[in-house]
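Fold this: Pyridoxal phosphate homeostasis protein
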Amino acid sequence: MSIKENLEQIKTSLPKNVTLVAVSKTKPESDIMIAYGAGQRVFGENKVQEMTSKWENLPKDIKWHMIGHVQRNKVKYMAPFVSLIHGVDSLKLLKEINKQAQKHDRIINCLLQVHIAKEDTKFGMDEGEVISLLASDEFKNMQNIKIMGLMGMATFTEDETRIKDEFTFLHGLFKKLKGIYPASAKINIDTLSMGMSGDYNIAIACGSNMVRIGSNIFGARNYN
Ligand SMILES: *Cc1c(COP(=O)(O)O)cnc(C)c1O
């Protein structure tokens, strides 16, 4: 099937409250423009440089989401335009985002990444770290950050029960934080980013309202 057909099929299958992030990492701008032509406006990338050059070349109504692990020294490149940063996993990183956002007189929307997988390789904070970050004076003093919710990646496994347990845990934390923090200028726990090509149906059943789908739209990636 074509990119357009893949995209249309996925979009019609998603519940109305679920936002689709089309993950275009490693894919050429021409592929992004096919999806754009089919109405897609939200794209996800995992490398700051790649996202920045795509932003420079492509239509300005695209919303660029940074879904990968972010190095602090790269934040400055995306600060002028990034629409949502999914992978915030430390106060140090958040401080740098706040500083760069300030330079551009913007509020940058962020998700806190929570480590839910039973794998060492996936980044993210645990529940205690999330709660102490949000309670810290340093966070309270940041004027250019808005926390929009949580992001997580399940273990890469065939074991659906395990995937479901991990997503259910994250949904539980999401609801808990929603209860602790009423919506304000700095915190609006509204977005739960979980689910990729292989597990987005499970994620949605477990409460996800933002899915990040790459290969099911654009085809398999080649890494050189
Ligand atoms: C690459 C990537 C995705 C998309 O993966 P697919 O399996 O191709 O859908 C989603 N989330 C993150 C964080 C990624 O790095």
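Strands lie at 19-23, 42-45, 63-66, 84-88, 108-114, 145-152, 187-193, 210-213. The chain has one domain: 3-217.
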